[in-house]
Specification:
This protein is an alpha+beta fold and 136 residues long. The chain has one domain. The protein has three helices and eight strands. The longest helix has 13 residues. The protein is globular and about 40 Å long.
């Protein structure tokens, strides 16, 4: 949960160079995110689930209609990355709730790992997560 992977590679809502961590509130959406970004071979890797308790006061919520045009472009995430970078630099909250691009009715949570309140988030110990082998 140090944001290093997102810092190195960038993500939907952050450009390379900005460390953040991404979470979902369902294992199913997390599994879809993994499959979309890594491919079906990832089913055979070892995965874990880590639960997080993020106090509501630390979360900014953004509705799809409040996002800039083009932030849902799956082929070019530049608009979404600029939005996320601006949010991180403002430093108002430790987390932001954003729409999933994979399942538009679902939400993901992006954590600003450098925010002072980040250390107040409680993370569980990792537990094994197994994909159904039919997905592989």
């Amino acid at each position: 949960m140090d944001g290093e992977g997102a810092r190195k590679m960038g993500g939907r809502w952050n450009p390379p160079g900005i460390p953040v961590a991404y979470l979902t509130d369902s294992r199913a959406l997390a599994a879809l995110e993994i499959l979309v970004h890594t491919g079906r071979a990832a089913v055979n890797l070892s995965w874990v689930v880590i639960e997080a308790e993020v106090p509501a006061r630390m979360i900014e919520s953004v509705l799809p209609e409040d996002l800039p045009a083009g932030s849902d472009d799956v082929l070019s995430p530049s608009v979404a990355r600029k939005f996320g970078a601006d949010w991180v630099h403002r430093g108002e909250k430790a987390a932001i709730l954003l729409p999933s691009v994979i399942v538009s009715a679902e939400r993901i949570l992006m954590l600003n790992v450098k925010h002072p309140d980040f250390r107040k988030i409680v993370f569980s110990a990792p537990r094994p997560f197994l994909f159904d082998q039919r997905l592989g």
